[in-house]
Design goal:
homodimer; about 675 residues; alpha+beta; FAD/NAD(P)-binding domain; Glutaredoxin; 2 domains; 8-stranded mixed β-sheet; 28 strands; oxidoreductase activity, acting on paired donors, with incorporation or reduction of molecular oxygen, NAD(P)H as one donor, and incorporation of one atom of oxygen (chains A, B); Thioredoxin-like_sf (chains A, B)
Chain lengths: ~675, ~675
C-alpha cells in the first residue's frame, strides 16, 4: 500500500452548513489558512432552516453579507393568535408585535438556507484579493479517521490533529444528498439564478482518493449526526429526550381565504395546532401537528407520513377557512426532541459547533441562528490563536460561553414545544382565553432569548465583570476560568451591558455629516475595540481628558500585537482602492462625542490617536463621530440610548465579536482599567 | 467584393456610456431585441463623470441597481463656502445643506463612472432568465454608414434604418481609449475587483470585419463627438459658445490640514476659484481654475497643461492650508462651453441622447445625470412602440420633453459657470460678503433643477394637464403635439404634480404590516400605473366608491394591451420563483388607503381588482397598502405628504417612467377621465 499524500493546514472545518461556513468566513477575513469539507454534492437549494433572528442578521451585517438576506427575506413583523370561539370556530384572539421594537435595526426574517449558504460563499470570496484563490468548499469529502497528538496539544506551533479525508466519487456522495430523515422535496425545478453554477460545476466521474491532513485545529460543524462528535468518543454523546409529538412541515404557495396568511400565526384548533411562517417568493411554511401519527414511545414509523397526510391535517386545522396549493417547494416531518452534549471541545484542539452539540425542534426558528452564533463565537478565537495573538487558554471560553446558550436553548425549546403541543384548546371561550393567554405570555417573554440579543457571557479575561447576580442567567456548571483584573463601572453605560452584544445606534461622522449605524464602523475583522464616548468635548476640561486618554493610547497600543487585515476590511463602503502600509493594531479606537458638531475641528481639537496619520493617505477621517443634529434626520440621541452621560462620557471595550468586555471612565482610572483588561488578554505568559 | 452579412434588430444603440446603457437596460427589461455597440475596448475605469443626483438614484433604484451606488458612493450632505477675510486669508463664510431635505430618500452622491457602467451591465444581465444569453455590449465596434428608408418610416413592421458596423481590430480600437481631449489618467493600476473581467475578456488578435444591420430604431448615445449626429446631417449640429476660462480636474487622495476637505466646498481665493468634491475611496475631486492658462479667444494650447501646473494652482488656492498627495487617480482639463442641438430625432427613427445633443461644464454634476435621464425618457417609448403597444407618434414627446431640459441645462450652466469663474473675490470682508451671498443664493435656488426633481413635462397625450401658467417652466418652442382629452384635478393631490415625477413615501403593506417605499412597488417594467389613494375605506360610502372603481377597472382594463414581463420584474424582493401564467395588463393598479389597518380585511372588504386572483398562486397580497401606524416606526403620514385628503382620496395616473400624467377623483368622474387618458394613449388610430 502506498503512503497517503499529506498536507498541513491551520484549521480544518468539517461541514459546510451555516455553522461551518460562518467559521470559514471568519477565518478567511483573518487570513488564516483553512480548509472546509462537506459530504454533500452541492449546497442546499430549498427547505431546511429558514428563520433569521435579529442578532444573526447583525452578525452577517458585520461581514457585509446581511444586505441580500435583508432584501430577499420575508420580514415577520406581527404575530397573530387564533383559537376556537364558543362554537368551536377559530377566530383571531390577538395580534401583536413579533420582534421587540427598538431592539435592533433588523427584525425576524425568513429565507431558505440555500440562499444564506450562497451569501456566505460570496462573502468568503470577497475576503481574498483578486490575485489569490479564495477558500472554496471541498464537496463530496468525508473524514474517515481523527487523532490528536495529546503531547503536542499545548505547543502553539504544532499541528497535533491528524485527519484522514476521503474524496468520494459522485455515486458514493449522492445518497448523502438525502437531506432529512425522510424523503424530502417534491418540486425542485425552480432554482434561484446564482445557485445553478454550483450544480453545474461539481466534478463528474472523478475517482475516490484518500489524503491525510495535519491541522492545528479541527471544528466539527457536521450536524445532528456529527461524524466528528462520534470520533471524539462516548463522553461527547448528546443527551436528552424525545416526546411522542410528530409534526409535519410544508413549504407551499397557499391558495386560501384565511385572512392572516402573510402574518406569523399560531392556530390552536380542536383538530390540532399549526404555525404559519410567511416566507419569500409567495410561499408560506406550515408547521402542522400530526395527531393521527404517533411515535408510541419510540421512533415513529416514517412510512406512515406523506405530504397528503400532512396537508389533510393542515386543512382540518384551517377549517372553516379553505386551504389549497398548486406549488409545494419542500416538505418533511420530525419528532420533537431536545439533546445537548457535556463537552464542546477536546483539548481545545477539536471543537464541535451547531447541531453537532445541540438539537431541538425547529418551530422557534433557533437552529441555524444558534449554530451560526456558535462558530461566530469560536472563529475569532481560533483565528487569533493561530496568529499567536491570543494565548491558547482563551479558547476555553468557547465551551463556557456556548454550552450555557445550548442548555438555555434546550430548556426554552422544551417549554415552548410543550406549551404549543400540549395545551389542547377548549371549546368554551372563557377557558380558551386562559390557555391562550398563557401561551401568548410565554411567547413574548421568550423574545429576548429567541432574538439572540439576550445572550449574556460570563466573567472571564474577555469580560471584566462580577458574576451576574441574576439567578436566571447564572450558570449551572462552575466557571473556573481566569477572570480579568480590570474593574468595570457598568453604571457609566447602562445599556452597554457587560457580556452582552453592544447595540447599534446612529451617529454622525464628524468629517462629512453622514449618519452611520455605529455597528457599520465596527466590522468583524478580528480587532478589539475601544469606543471612546468622549462626552462634551466643547468643554475644555472634558476635551483635555479625552486628549490625555488619546495621548496615553498612542504610547500604550503600540505595545500590543498588530493584525494583518485582508482587503474586505470595510464591508460597508465598498472596495478599498488605496492601501496603507501600516500594520494595524489589534485594538481599534473610535471616538463618539456629544459636543455640537460645528464647535469641533477634527484636526485642531482632537488628539491624533482619534484621526491617525498615514504618510500616503493623510489623516483618517472615519474615526470620529458625533451625537447631534443633521439637516436630514431627527436626532438619534445615541448617548441616551447607550445609557451614557452626555457630559462626561465613558469608554466601552468590545471583543472582536462585538460583546462588551469593559466599561470604564474616560479619565485616568479608565486608562488603568483598559491596560489591565488588554494585558489580561494578551500579555499572560 | 462579397456581400456583407446582414441582420435585423429592433433597436441598435450606438455608445455604451451611461446614456446608452440606460437605454439597453430599459429595452432588456421590456424584452425588446437590442444590440449595443461601443468603440472603446473596455468600459471606463476611473475619472470621468462622477456625480449622482437624487432623481438619477431614484431611476436606478426603479431597476433595482441603486443599492450598490448608494453603498459605494460618497454622499455629499453639506456644502461649505470659503472666501478671503480682510487680511486676504480664506475662511469659512457659510456651511449649509447640499440637497433639499425631504425631497427624496437619496442625497447627492459621488462614484466614478466605471462603477455605474458595471452596475448597468449587471442589471442588464439580471433582466434575462438563466437559460437565455443576455444582451452584451459589443466593444471595438463603430458605425460607418447610416441610411433611413423614409418611405417606410411610418410602417410599424418595417426596419427602415440601415447601419453598417465595423468590428475593429484591437490596434484600431486602442486610440479610442483616449477618453478626453487631453491625455488623461496617470495612475490606473488599482482597478476595482469586478472590473478585471472586462479587461481580460476582451478579444485579442481578432480581424476587422463589416456587417449590415437593419433596425427599427437607432439611438446615438455616442457622446460629444457623436458619429450618429454627424451622420444625420448639418441641421443636427450643436450650437453654443465657449468662454476663455480653463479648468483643471484632479482625483487625488489629499494630504491636507484644510478642515472641510470631506465636504463639498467652494473656495474663492485671490489666486482663483476651486471646488472640492469628496468622493469614494478617500479621494477628492478638485476642480481648479487655471488662471495662467488662457484660451485667448480660441482653443487652448493643450501642451501647456500638465498635472503639475494644475496642482500648483490648487496649492495656491488652498493657501495658507497645505495640500499634498501621494496618489492621483485621474486628471484632465477643459474649456467651459455650452452647446445643444435643435433636433433630437430624425423621423422618430434615429434619436440622439446625452452628450450627443448637449455639452456643458461638469462642475454642477449634471452631465451623466441628464444623459441617463434622456434615455430613461426614451427607452420605454421605443420599447412599447416596438411591441406595438404605443402608437409611433408618442415618440415625438421625447424631443419635446428633453429638448426643454437641455436648454434649461445650458442656460443654468452658463449662469452657474460665469458666477463661479467671473466674480473674483475682493480682499475686503464687506465687499466679499456681497459677492459670496449672491453666489450662495444662486447655488441654493439651483438645487431644484440640479437634483433632477424639478423636471416638469409639457401637456401631451401622456400628461393630461393645461399648459403651465408659470413662465419659468414655459417652453420656448411651440408644443404642437396632440393633448389628452382627459381633465386632471391637480388640487386633489397637490404634491403629485402633473408632468413631474411622483414622489416616494413609505406605506404599510396591508397583508403583512411591512413598510415599503411606494417607489419600490412601482419598478420600471414598462407598465403604466393607477395609484388609487382610496381614502378612508373603513367608511362604507368611501369603500363603495373604491370598490365601484375596482369593478369598473375589472371590465375596462382587459380592453387595453397586455405586456409580457421579463423575470426581474420585482427588483426589490429578490428573485421570482413561482410564475403566473397570466399576461399582465399594460396598466398596474395599486391601492393605498388611509383607514386603520386593523379595520380592513383584504379579501373581504376590498374588490378583487386590488388583489387579483391567480389559479396557481392564489390572491396577490402585494397591491394594497395603508397609511397609518406600525409597531416599529413613526407614522409617515403619506397622504399629507402627497397632498391628498385622507377621507376622499384621489387617483394618480403614472407613466412607465414614474411621471404623473393624471390626477382625478376616486368616484364616477374619475373612471371617465381614466378611460379618456388611456384611450388617448393606446386607442388612437
Amino acid at each position: 500500500m502506498t503512503e497517503l499524500p499529506e498536507s498541513k493546514v491551520d484549521v480544518l472545518v468539517i461541514g459546510a452548513g451555516p455553522a461551518g461556513l460562518m467559521l470559514a468566513l471568519w477565518l478567511s477575513r483573518l487570513g488564516v489558512k483553512t480548509r472546509i469539507v462537506d459530504k454533500r454534492t452541492a449546497k442546499v437549494y430549498s427547505g431546511q432552516a429558514d428563520g433569521f433572528q435579529v442578532r444573526s442578521l447583525e452578525i452577517l451585517d458585520s461581514f457585509g453579507i446581511a444586505e441580500r438576506v435583508w432584501k430577499e427575506a420575508n420580514r415577520m413583523l406581527e404575530v397573530s393568535f387564533w383559537n376556537p370561539d364558543e362554537n368551536g370556530i377559530i377566530q383571531r384572539s390577538a395580534k401583536s408585535v413579533n420582534t421587540i421594537p427598538g431592539l435592533s435595526r433588523f427584525t425576524e426574517s425568513v429565507l431558505h438556507q440555500g440562499r444564506i449558504e450562497q451569501f456566505f460563499i460570496d462573502g468568503i470570496r470577497a475576503s481574498y484579493p483578486s490575485n489569490e484563490t479564495p477558500l472554496q468548499v471541498e464537496r463530496m469529502v468525508i473524514p474517515t479517521s481523527l487523532e490528536i497528538d495529546e503531547a503536542a496539544a499545548e505547543d502553539s506551533e504544532a499541528h497535533p490533529v491528524t485527519v484522514t479525508l476521503r474524496h468520494l466519487t459522485e455515486e458514493e456522495a449522492t445518497p448523502t444528498q438525502m437531506l432529512s430523515n425522510l424523503n424530502d422535496g417534491i418540486f425542485r425545478s425552480n432554482l434561484a439564478e446564482d445557485d445553478v453554477a454550483g450544480i453545474l460545476d461539481r466534478s463528474k466521474g472523478r475517482e475516490a482518493r484518500d489524503e491525510v491532513v495535519r491541522a492545528k485545529y479541527v471544528v466539527g460543524c457536521d450536524g445532528a449526526h456529527s461524524w466528528t462528535r462520534k470520533a471524539l468518543g462516548k463522553e461527547f454523546e448528546m443527551k436528552g429526550e424525545s416526546t411522542d409529538a410528530i409534526w409535519g412541515v410544508m413549504d407551499i404557495v397557499p391558495i386560501t381565504d384565511f385572512p392572516d396568511i402573510r402574518f406569523r400565526t399560531m392556530i390552536q384548533n380542536t383538530a390540532g395546532a399549526l404555525m404559519i411562517i410567511p416566507r419569500e417568493n409567495r410561499m408560506v411554511r406550515l408547521y402542522i401537528q400530526l395527531k393521527e401519527v404517533s411515535a408510541g414511545g419510540g421512533r415513529v414509523d416514517r412510512s406512515q407520513i406523506t405530504p397528503e397526510i400532512i396537508f389533510k391535517s393542515a386543512q382540518r386545522i384551517f377549517s372553516p377557512y379553505k386551504l389549497e396549493y398548486h406549488y409545494c417547494d419542500w416538505w418533511t416531518a420530525y419528532q420533537i426532541g431536545q439533546r445537548t452534549g457535556d463537552h464542546f471541545s477536546k483539548l481545545n484542539r477539536v471543537f464541535l459547533a451547531g447541531d453537532a452539540v445541540h438539537t431541538h425542534s425547529p418551530k422557534a426558528g433557533q437552529g441555524m441562528n444558534i449554530s451560526m452564533q456558535d462558530s461566530y463565537n469560536l472563529g475569532w478565537k481560533i483565528g487569533l490563536a493561530c496568529k499567536n495573538i491570543l494565548p491558547r487558554d482563551v479558547l476555553s471560553t468557547y465551551e463556557l460561553e456556548r454550552k450555557k446558550i445550548a442548555k438555555d436553548l434546550i430548556a426554552f425549546d422544551g417549554k415552548f414545544s410543550k406549551l404549543f403541543t400540549g395545551a389542547p384548546p377548549k371549546d368554551i371561550q372563557s377557558e380558551t382565553g386562559v390557555s391562550d393567554d398563557v401561551f401568548q405570555k410565554a411567547f413574548h417573554t421568550s423574545r429576548m432569548f429567541t432574538t439572540g440579543v439576550g445572550v449574556n457571557y460570563q466573567p472571564t479575561v474577555l469580560v471584566a465583570k462580577e458574576a451576574d447576580p441574576d439567578p436566571e442567567t447564572e450558570d449551572d456548571s462552575p466557571n473556573t476560568l481566569t477572570k480579568s483584573t480590570a474593574k468595570s463601572t457598568q453604571s457609566l453605560a447602562t445599556n452597554c451591558k457587560l457580556g452582552q452584544r453592544f447595540p447599534s445606534y446612529k451617529v454622525i461622522r464628524q468629517s462629512d455629516a453622514r449618519l452611520w449605524e455605529l455597528h457599520h464602523k465596527l466590522p468583524s475583522n478580528g480587532r478589539f475595540r475601544l469606543v471612546v464616548f468622549g462626552g462634551d468635548i466643547s468643554q475644555p476640561t472634558q476635551r483635555d481628558s479625552v486628549n490625555a486618554l488619546g495621548a496615553w493610547l498612542s504610547s500604550y497600543l503600540p505595545k500590543l500585537p498588530t493584525i494583518g487585515l485582508c482587503p474586505a476590511s470595510d464591508p460597508h463602503s465598498g472596495q478599498i482602492k488605496f492601501k496603507t502600509d501600516a500594520d494595524p493594531s489589534i485594538v481599534d479606537v473610535v471616538l463618539v462625542h456629544s459636543a455640537p458638531r460645528d464647535e469641533v475641528d477634527l484636526l485642531r481639537d482632537v488628539h491624533e490617536a482619534y484621526h491617525p496619520f498615514d504618510s500616503k493617505l493623510g489623516w483618517d477621517y472615519d474615526k470620529v463621530f458625533s451625537d447631534g443634529k443633521t439637516f436630514y434626520e431627527e436626532p438619534e440621541r445615541a448617548y441616551e440610548k447607550y445609557g451614557i452621560d452626555s457630559g462626561k462620557g465613558a469608554v466601552v471595550g468590545l471583543r472582536p465579536d462585538g460583546y462588551v468586555g469593559l466599561v470604564t471612565p474616560v479619565g485616568h482610572d479608565g486608562a488603568e482599567q483598559i491596560q489591565r483588561w488588554f494585558d489580561g488578554i494578551f500579555q499572560r505568559s
